[in-house]
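User: Predict the full complex structure for these chains.
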Amino acid sequence: MALVDIYVPKKSPLHGVDPRVKIISAVLLTVVCFFITDLVVLLSLLLYMQILVWSTGVNLKTYSSSFWLVARFSIILMIVWPFFDQVGQPILLDLWIYKPTLPAVLRALAIAMRIFIIASGWLILLLTTRHGQLVRGFVKLGLPYDFGISLSIALRYLPNFLGTIDQIKEAQASRGLESSRGNFVKRARNMIPVLIPTFAIAFRAIEGLSEALHSRGYGANPARTYYRDINMTVYDSIAVALIVSVAALAVVSKVLGIADF
Amino acid sequence: MNQSHVSISGLKFSYPDGTQAIRGVDLEIRHGERIGLAGENGSGKTTLCKHMNGLLSPSAGRILVDGREASSLGASEIAAKVGYLFQNPDHQLFCSTVREEVEFGLRNIGLGADEIGRRVARYLEMLGISHLAEHPPLALSLGLRRLVTVASVLAMEQELLILDEPIAWLDAKQKASVVGAIRQAGTEGRTTVVISHNMKLMAELTDRLIVMTGGSIRLDGKTKDILSDPAAMASVGLVSPPVTLLAESIKDALHFTRRIDTNEDFVSALRERMPGGGTRGTG
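Assistant: Here is the predicted structure of the two-chain assembly.
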């Protein structure tokens, strides 16, 4: 739930930015991140992104679980990384096939920081943009309306869906199902009484929703009109121009070897 | 009947997002009582009941079921003591046949094959769905899926039954089956707690009514006394059954003296006002 249902209405500058600017920025940030290898630059960018997240004015409690999820993923990645990357010296540990070297650990650290930076960028987008505006932003950027409405439905229903899973777990626990006991195989088997109702509910919801959409004329008229449209201000246009320029400059200078970061 | 079945003292509960759902509840439920739990949406009814079967642990206070802390009991132990019928039948159905669905809980609490067979047959019969025993429950209509979940909960024969909106989505015949089965459970001495917005159902199935507002108990008394007092009901955002409101509107003209919350009461009150005790024309 924490990953998607996190829009918080505030009056921060980032809330006022056109969704297209935020989408373009998040995409460019994702691309540029992979060109940066210098740990100091990555760390600086990470800190900068945290300042931006803080500037949204949203309480840390709202998104801490999202960050915690990313942190867990990053920690697992850093532990697993040395299995596949054993290039360089010195070897920090020698445990049979697990031989993490200092350069490999630093590379893993760089990857973890990139993940955090990218997650922060997309988090800002989700924290400061209403679902409707987000979808409208994607559609205005040229993505098909079908994609937009699919994204909107996914964002709208995922929190409900995760809540439903909790309720199913409670219903089965009331009938004596102990899903958190036993070995891995038993636990996996105990998930069946949770998974089957989950899928059954999901399929019923899909069927009901598609009928409801159809009955309200979805797809009947290809030339849709919009009640609430989004409009770029001069500031939004300047912001896009700046962000695109900086990102292009960074990538080009890195590829051509003009700058090393 | 006099022994304490559920004992709740100083219960408080807040959800992780900070919402305070229960703000200090003290409640004693005796063995065999037929309780109704009413209140507006968000008043804390379901949250309170989820404490009784250990799904939630109190933020403060205690909740004892048969003298033992509910949250300290294991899943199969609490499932053998407390039955919980959830509002949405789709939250529990997963087996390939109705029979297996009813058997699932019985196996979890470790019953033998003979006893399982006896109970499955009894409760499918009681709810009028014996003919569906080998059908896949997920392919049934919503009302029938509801009956399967009622059968699967009642079959566990726990001493305490919590039933959240037990007649939702049922047609008249199905409602009668479920009401009959719940009455039967009460007759057998099982404690029943019915959560509902349906005051007619409360009048039919409960003797004691508890009304919650804002996470606290506002009214606790005899169902008949509370339901037949439209002013008290209105003060907690509820409406008396239609028959009570009808009786209230004509009571001065007909000089009704008795409390009325069921059709039977209304008919009796009318008969009392008729010349000859209303015996004419009934045969």
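The first strand of chain B starts at residue 4 and ends at 14.
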